[in-house]
Amino acid sequence: MKKGIQHARAGTPIDHYLLIKTATKQIASNHKPFLTLILGDQTGEIEAKLWGINEKDETTFCNKTMVHVRGEVIDYRGRLQLKISSIRQVTADDHVKIEDLIRTAPLQKDDMLAVINEFIFDIRNPNLQRLTRSLIKKHEQAFLESPAATRNHHEFMSGLAYHVVSMLNLAKSIVNLYPDIDQDLLYAGVILHDLGKVRELSGAIDTTYTVEGTLIGHISIIAAEIAETAKELHIDGEEVVALQHLVLSHHGKGEWGSPKSPMIREAEVLHLIDQFDARITMMNDALVNIEPGQFSERVMALEQRRFYKPAFQKTPADIL
Amino acid sequence: MKKGIQHARAGTPIDHYLLIKTATKQIASNHKPFLTLILGDQTGEIEAKLWGINEKDETTFCNKTMVHVRGEVIDYRGRLQLKISSIRQVTADDHVKIEDLIRTAPLQKDDMLAVINEFIFDIRNPNLQRLTRSLIKKHEQAFLESPAATRNHHEFMSGLAYHVVSMLNLAKSIVNLYPDIDQDLLYAGVILHDLGKVRELSGAIDTTYTVEGTLIGHISIIAAEIAETAKELHIDGEEVVALQHLVLSHHGKGEWGSPKSPMIREAEVLHLIDQFDARITMMNDALVNIEPGQFSERVMALEQRRFYKPAFQKTPADIL
Amino acid sequence: MKKGIQHARAGTPIDHYLLIKTATKQIASNHKPFLTLILGDQTGEIEAKLWGINEKDETTFCNKTMVHVRGEVIDYRGRLQLKISSIRQVTADDHVKIEDLIRTAPLQKDDMLAVINEFIFDIRNPNLQRLTRSLIKKHEQAFLESPAATRNHHEFMSGLAYHVVSMLNLAKSIVNLYPDIDQDLLYAGVILHDLGKVRELSGAIDTTYTVEGTLIGHISIIAAEIAETAKELHIDGEEVVALQHLVLSHHGKGEWGSPKSPMIREAEVLHLIDQFDARITMMNDALVNIEPGQFSERVMALEQRRFYKPAFQKTPADIL
Amino acid sequence: MKKGIQHARAGTPIDHYLLIKTATKQIASNHKPFLTLILGDQTGEIEAKLWGINEKDETTFCNKTMVHVRGEVIDYRGRLQLKISSIRQVTADDHVKIEDLIRTAPLQKDDMLAVINEFIFDIRNPNLQRLTRSLIKKHEQAFLESPAATRNHHEFMSGLAYHVVSMLNLAKSIVNLYPDIDQDLLYAGVILHDLGKVRELSGAIDTTYTVEGTLIGHISIIAAEIAETAKELHIDGEEVVALQHLVLSHHGKGEWGSPKSPMIREAEVLHLIDQFDARITMMNDALVNIEPGQFSERVMALEQRRFYKPAFQKTPADIL
Amino acid sequence: MKKGIQHARAGTPIDHYLLIKTATKQIASNHKPFLTLILGDQTGEIEAKLWGINEKDETTFCNKTMVHVRGEVIDYRGRLQLKISSIRQVTADDHVKIEDLIRTAPLQKDDMLAVINEFIFDIRNPNLQRLTRSLIKKHEQAFLESPAATRNHHEFMSGLAYHVVSMLNLAKSIVNLYPDIDQDLLYAGVILHDLGKVRELSGAIDTTYTVEGTLIGHISIIAAEIAETAKELHIDGEEVVALQHLVLSHHGKGEWGSPKSPMIREAEVLHLIDQFDARITMMNDALVNIEPGQFSERVMALEQRRFYKPAFQKTPADIL
Amino acid sequence: MKKGIQHARAGTPIDHYLLIKTATKQIASNHKPFLTLILGDQTGEIEAKLWGINEKDETTFCNKTMVHVRGEVIDYRGRLQLKISSIRQVTADDHVKIEDLIRTAPLQKDDMLAVINEFIFDIRNPNLQRLTRSLIKKHEQAFLESPAATRNHHEFMSGLAYHVVSMLNLAKSIVNLYPDIDQDLLYAGVILHDLGKVRELSGAIDTTYTVEGTLIGHISIIAAEIAETAKELHIDGEEVVALQHLVLSHHGKGEWGSPKSPMIREAEVLHLIDQFDARITMMNDALVNIEPGQFSERVMALEQRRFYKPAFQKTPADIL
After folding, report:
1. Quick one: which of E146, E163, E153, E244 has its CA closest to E197?
2. Which residue of F has its CA nearest to B215?
3. E151: pLDDT confidence band, cut at 50, 70 and 90?
4. Looking at CA atoms only, how far is residue D31 from chain F in angstroms?
5. HD domain spans which residues (chains A, B, C, D, E, F) (predicted)?
6. Which residue of chain F comes nearest to B33, CA vs CA?
7. In whole angstroms, how far apart are CA C113 and each of C108, C118, C137, C159, E78?
8. Whole domain around residue E305: which residue ranges?
9. What is the predicted ipTM?
10. Are residues D81 and D129 in the same domain?
11. In chain D, N or C: fewer CB atoms in 10 Å?
């Protein structure tokens, strides 16, 4: 078996460090309390029941606790479940860090920051460069750690920065092929388009939406920050309006959360490459464990389609 | 005939002061230039052709010029047109003001400001009151003069303030009938919801959308200003998020331009009374010249419906 | 704990009078029959299982029976359930009336009738007044007891009359603010718009749709009754057509069940205030038990939105 | 050239009896009044201008007047127009009847009535038979003359009865092939489904919608008449509800004007064969003058499609 | 009780031959494996659990095995389940054929083939006749056995041929009533329209979609086969294009899977009678066990509607 | 003025070679025939009237004739028109080729063929390579000359090949950035996806849809050719199904003309880069003559949006 909880099947014995992602107290039909735990590692997550708990257990085995678990994976009514035989909280002697137990982007934070700074350096328009640099500076730490979403795609630690890096590389290729596109405006838009997520989402572990995120949304949050930063930096050229427009319109249309549709060439391009990276990423995630000749599960955010891996695609290209 | 260009019919002689709303130079089939003028007064507008013009005419009869016109209204291919027999620019001796020639709200600016200030005074939550007062102060002059739109409803001078006053009166009735509603938040939302139009629209005469208005929109403009003003006033309670949410969601859903749907009770109420005032106003405009027993023209913004005035509605209530 | 089943939590002991809303016989995996009961009082309802029943129990504990129950509320797979320790049918000595165990409008039937009659009195157009009065007379008893729906809003005893009273008060405010509106036609429309529900719904307890209600619908039912009543009263002015139109169009458009969209000013207003009262009521219901700083459950009929009660709304306005 | 105005082309000389369908007075750019006439015969219609008219002409050449015209068809800006050289009102000596100048169903009224009465005779359920017979009796004359619509299909004299006869024949075939269908209910539904059009439409010539038709619609009109007639005949079986349901649901769904979707087998069948006859008829109309190997004009009511007549369809089946 | 598993109720004893439609191995909470079986006969299917299985049982009781079962039907959480007391594989001595245990069309394969061949004989256009005959020949066996779908309608053995026969009879009636329709093209289209299903579906038992069926679809499969067959038969008249068009457009529009909407008269008719036969069949299936005065279950493919059988429909027409 | 009819303004004198794209005979109000000509060169087209024509003119100045025209551009009712002072047919002495007078791709046909052949060479899967090579071979000449559409984008000579070359370059970049993508399948899909247009469209000049193109469409045409070619080449691996699927699904969904949505990774990528190239191209076309600080016309195929060129985009990147 490949390492990691995602690869476990019914019958797999477990002897793992895992993170309690959520712990919910319930009452069994015999009136005794028990905990339903969602346990995860870098590869995925699994449900487990902790029966016959006492009050101390409730306190010990709470959200975001790292634990060591022994047990076995079983098939319970068609879904996999971890049957716990022993569980204990991790101690300093275990030398386990929380980053080891949650899914994280495949690139290091520092490397991603270096790439992004190079692209900022390539922005020749001084207004756009200063706005972009200043906003990234302001949120640097959160930006490098934040997921890009709570589900669907890039829903893991540093997913936001990873999504931006992928889009920047794509943007560079496209600017080379279609030279009418304004590289400066596009790069600035790519780097800032989802930055509002550092306030919309609650952080890297057990990510939820903040009240502000739910009521205002990352699009309006960052649009307002651009206005504010421009004022601080005494920038008032049309670059401010254009950059706000790119951010506001990057979901493409009203039904998808953008108060304006793209009306600048680079706004349309930003929307297209954002979609492109998201859709490819969701397909890759859906197909990663699928054998040639098989269909994936339905992917909700891709119009509920299933994807087929043709039988002739047996090349190394399938291996991540 | 009632006074005003709106009431003219084919055959009506014209001897009026009118405002040139737009003037467009064209070339006739005999190769001679002519001007197509849209001429208006407080009641409406009409098209006219000015034939055989010279270069001086082009300069004289340009957009936003007040003129005195003699001529006759004719039916040209099913539409009314003003056939000009003489036209001259207005001079100081005519004692005509531009306000006399454009449609204006039925209330005076000062009276509307007084009403709005009373409602601001009734906002007991200090954060909401200070935010509202400060933003109105900042844009007071433009707010009192701006139309609420370029067409559909309240598309006249001071239309924005008039729309706000009508909605405040409606809000007050509704708070009395449904006491769970938070009066403070609702009043603040009503007063600020369309304030971004002072930057979205170009002003009271020959109103168009500014570049910023087209690319950002009044909703995002004012949402950003609320954030900025809150920072200036050192307000950081949840009132700021709530008020931004009311403004962002007041169009009701994405298809209608709101990046968020209403998720606070007062946000839903704001959306409903905004719609209510707009729809009643559009119906009243459509029916104002309709006889009992007749249908109005189709109203585009009311799902292209025509409205019928029942034959038994012969009471003074029909007269504006 | 506030009184009433709606306020019970896991662990709450129960010693209550309750109404059996539905009783369904099922077979357990040990082949023994049991009953699944939905038990309710004025505040809400809860599921319970009655194990090991005999034939007499089946007869005794049927739909619409009042019972006294002792037991405890438990959490069963994430939903609350009442675990019955004893249950008996109510006797005359208990002095419990069915009205005490079902949700009822907050106003008395007689008071609501008085209000409605005053509004009928205010209808000056004799044709509209006679039609309205006659139809209310014909269905008076059922009208005062009927719920306005089986779910969503005003889905309780006398909910229909309560909805009409709320709308009349709203209509009165609006007529004052927008005097072009024909008060007579609007009041008549408000009073009659949902009257077909007395034939569409099965009554106040365990409300379901009748066959006629399902196949014809309350809108067409009352439109036909207006035609019929007009004939009986020898009224044939355009008031009959107008009133039928108000009733037919009050859902706003075809997708929502109206064969015609509003094409008379008062028809549009009727639709808007019907929506207004329904939406406010659903939000109030959703928020009634929500603490400041929390979100409600999703409200199906409000586009599945959740509603947030801002943390600063700690005033008495939150208490019903 | 085939006979009739529909077959005229640019250059065709005209020496015809025609009906003035509409006459509209307009003012030419030389200030002189003229009439725009829509002139028709049994095959179609054409526009004409009557220049230099006096007051008597206005009175003489009004709507629904039969005239004799000489002139020539011309191409004016891409559309055909009749250039009048002489025009006079028809006199008794011309021996022309209005029926000769308007499009009429291809069957005689008496023959259609005979067919319909046979089908009524075949309804064995006495309640359904009596309801159907009584309603047809009540509106017999108007029913036999009314068009089925103002445009799209069966928009000619006696079009309503012709549409019903076609549908009855189709219904008979279908009942034979699918014997589960209740012939009685289906026949009754077919005969009555559009009967409300006798009050919705203004009659056979220059057909428009009545006020009642616009505000109530033929569907609700006949549903109410069924209720009323049942009361007169003392019928209160479920046949009344079922028949009302068939009529109410025959447009299929809300967006198409039905307040209820079909929920009885025969209601669905009625909807399907109504659609079937309408769609075939519209296609036949569109293709009647099309040569093999050519496309028709776009047909608005058939989703704006054009229809192609294959080159191999050169058989007599193409000739009406 | 009527014979057949569809008619069983809780408490019904079972002593039947049944077909294992699917067998799924699962692990119980006591770690022991068990099988969930879906068992069917000609009338319907039911779930059963086979507890405490050994490895031989797994092999014996696999998909598409015929078994004899004794046991009893129980109500398990609101759904019927078969509680097995004994189960054994069928042997030659049982004289049971698989056709006896799966739902099959009510007509014999040979009879249906004879009907279809008669209709082919009636196609006078030689190109259309040869194309149709050749394609039916090529797939004769599969065509006569295939279901028309995996669910919704005609989802049983020989369902495809049965659907075609019903549609041909309907087509014949319609050609008689509307003689403009080209009988040859319509018959050819009816016979071939769904023939691609012989490659789209996996066969008559436990029908699923093939990979080719999922990725290409029966519409494009048969369109390509028509092109190919025409080439083999050296036919290149417009009949080939027209016939491909009928097949490609028979679902009516893009959202329903047709790359082209009908643009030939016979294409529209094919679409309409395909819909007609499908909708009538689904309604008949939904109503077959419904008592007069009752509603059916919701029918997914008929816009989730329930259907009502009127109380007065007590005639033999209700009995299949 | 830049060279070419697209750059002419009212008043521009014309002394040009032009191609008659369409010539339509009409009758003026003075009964004399005239021709409406659409005249074009490599940059665009303009309308002209040729008055007072004789029968020889009709024959001379027909569709697809090259002419030399002298005259002047005028503004006629807001649209530009060419006022002809002299016109004559081109003779051999003019040394003008039709390619000089129609818009053509910016790359040479031979160069594009070379690029495409290199990409075919890079397809390592032999089945995919042979299918692609064979189909391009079969249609080589038409493929290199065909436009990609009649309007919207790449609607010029060799537009199809140019679109394919742009997409191949984009595909290459994307395969580098997302190595999970199967390069072979993607390249084959890009090259073949629109090849059916060589039969769907009538050729490079005055392009219209063929009957086959209208009734079958380029998607189904090429899907059938892939099946046929595979049979000829004795290829029956899953590559055939996969390649057909890519072609069938490349419009993304049913509403846009694809009978299947993408269900293979490379199918989704093909759809995305097809859209990408089309949308960028349409935006570039819309913005090519727009000054910084101005909006373009509305672009129909881009959801009727107008595009803004920011005032700060004054760099050489704007110049084609």
Report:
1. E146
2. F308
3. confident
4. 19
5. 163-279
6. F75
7. 9, 9, 11, 13, 44
8. 289-318
9. 0.89
10. no
11. N
